[in-house]
Amino acid sequence: RPSQVMLNLFAAALAFESPLSLIRVGAAQSPVEPSRREVCSALGFAALGLRPSRVWAGEAEYKDLSTKVSSKLLTSAETAAESKDALATVDWGAPKLTGLSTEEMARRVDAGLRRECWFITGRSLPELFSNSFTFSDPQVSLNGIEEYSRGVRSFYKQGSAVGEVVCTSVTAPDTITVVWRNYGTVNIGPGFDLAPYLCTTTLKTSASDGGLIVKQEDAFEVNNADLIKYNLFKSSRPPVPPIESVACPLPTKV
Fold first, then answer.
1. CA-wise closest residue to 141 among 37, 1, 30
2. What sign results for the dihedral spanned by CA atoms 7, 9, 15, 17?
């Protein structure tokens, strides 16, 4: 029998169906893909009365009220000290690795993410990122690789959330595209699970900034009905296929 919390999440998702759905604009009706926080924002309202003990107090700029409210529901299983210790070996002031071609940068990004997916753990490689690095999606924008890294570490439940690289490719002279699979628990209220889905991360480099990464954007599609079912009926979840079985949608790989 679904728990009351899950029923509340279901009701909230219905009440706020628009943020969970793909928004279609323009004559061609092309989809505008939501951010993770947009997907989570409607579900977050159901947990308003749960009063989490800790929230991430980052410097993100929230672009709508529902996202700002749901961000206040973020609570991590790690203590502040544990989180700090987990990122203590990341050298935020490391000398920048300038002068790399886009292809070489792509190889370093791919190898680093396969060693440890910093999109989840926050243990990034600051030497690859410009001091002017920005992250933006339809709901959240922030500046700096350290701020981004601490934010994702707080957002995902460490040890439960998973990020796996499918493939990486140079898709334009200054553009690296990473396709990766994400699933597992996020830290909103009591926590809820993301069903496996593919995310496309676009990294922009700048020749005027030594070839470093200056911008990141994430895009993906989420089916709100499947997300609700995934959390309501956990015993019916299908097994997650091995990442090697996922086809790469990019024309070439590094």
1. 37
2. negative
Instruction: Read off φ and ψ for residue 195, nearest 5 degrees.
Output: -70, 155
Beta bridge partners of 181: 164, 198
Max CA separation in the chain (angstroms): 58
Angle at CA 67, nearest 5°, toward 74 and 175?
A: 95
The 10 Å Cβ neighbour count of residue 239 is 5
What's the angle, vertex CA 220, arms to CA 214 and CA 225, rounded to 5? 150
* Paired sense of beta strands 175-186 and 212-220, if any: unpaired
With 0-12 CB in 10 A as exposed, 13-18 as middle and 19+ as buried, what is 154? buried
| 52-95 residue pLDDT tens | 222 243 555 544 444 444 444 445 555 555 566 789 999 999 99
Which residues, including other chains, have CB under 8 Å from residue 73's CB and lie 6 or more apart? 44, 47, 48, 50, 52, 55, 188, 189
